[in-house]
Design a protein that fits this description.
Oligomer: single chain
Order of helices and strands: HHHEEEEEHHEHEHEEHEHEHEEEEHH
Structural class: alpha/beta
Helix content: 25-40%
Shape: elongated
Distance between the termini: 58 Å
Amino acid sequence: MPAVKSKPFRIQKLPDKVLQSVVGLMDIGTRLSLVVTSAKTENMMLQLEYPKEFIHNILFDEQPILYKADISVLPHCHSPDSVKFNCGRNKKKKQPLPSAYYNLIAKWSGRNTSCIDRMQNVYRKINILLPSHVMNLFLGKLKTVDAQKIMAAEEFSDWYRVRSLPGIKPETIRCVLDKADLNKQFCFDEEEQLPLDFAHPKAFQFEHSSFHDARWVKMPQLLTIKDVYEVRLGHSNFYCKDIGVLLCRMLESQHHMCKFFSVTYAGPFQLADVIQGVVTVKRRSNPLMFLVSPRTKNAAKIGYLTVHLEDSSLTIAVTNDRDQETETRKYMELFKKEIDLNAALKNMSISDSKMKKMRKFEKMLDAEKKEAAQAMLRYWNTPRE
């Protein structure tokens, strides 16, 4: 059968909506390959709107020879199919770094501009062609003026998470903390020690904040945490007695402080110091876990205290949603009633008839507590997604 010859079809002739749908189905490499075919095609594609479905990782790090300024675009967080745009420079040779999209970067970045300016110019185009739904910033060793410029740039203002790189300076960290937001995250994962006098009023005003070195953190600042999801502290100067104060505040506070809190404590582990002022029920031994509740009656909050003796760390998880773990809440309320009853029987001088009534109430309470304990165990042992 003879081959059918057909004329090539110009994609530019497609209606905008059809073209937008077609380009939207292309992978990263194909979309970029189409951009470089002609200036007309590029301008046409930059006029379209695409779904925000990519992850952008933006990196800045000034090294002795290289100024690294990279944009990595990923279809999802664990994808190996990422595309990288190197917008940095070789400081010694005073020339741009090689990149698979060197010509495109050279065209978009402009001439005689700094690495940060180059990144801003290139990123404007990339975020149109491959729009992000998550942007992460990775910041390393930078001049303070560069860190300020990056954090003030409109192109990078919609970041979700900032992660530190080796060599990051305290001044850069302060620039990030200035932009604290309960919808953003900050992770200082480096083993480098921050100055002990380091401080910032917004250090824990993120949805998630973590500091591998937390020896600079003071307890008064932790006690003011409000409406955050998670705080992770590595090496700290907090002893078990300090953590006991924080645990009481997290359980007794009228507002929600923090759902998850973890810390590496200083000194030997002293359980009595940690659980001072709270009601506890041991749940398991390895790792050591306790159910914790404030001593006040009908309190909305309950929590779990988990201790890892092997690395001197502990985690506190707190919930104040009355609709969650109702079986656990009922058991803890009955447990507190039993504690109050035993205290009353020990300290009061009462008649035999009244004593009999209280003993009868004690038996009823004990039976109700056993029933609640069984319900709580069934809840704990029920598989959940």
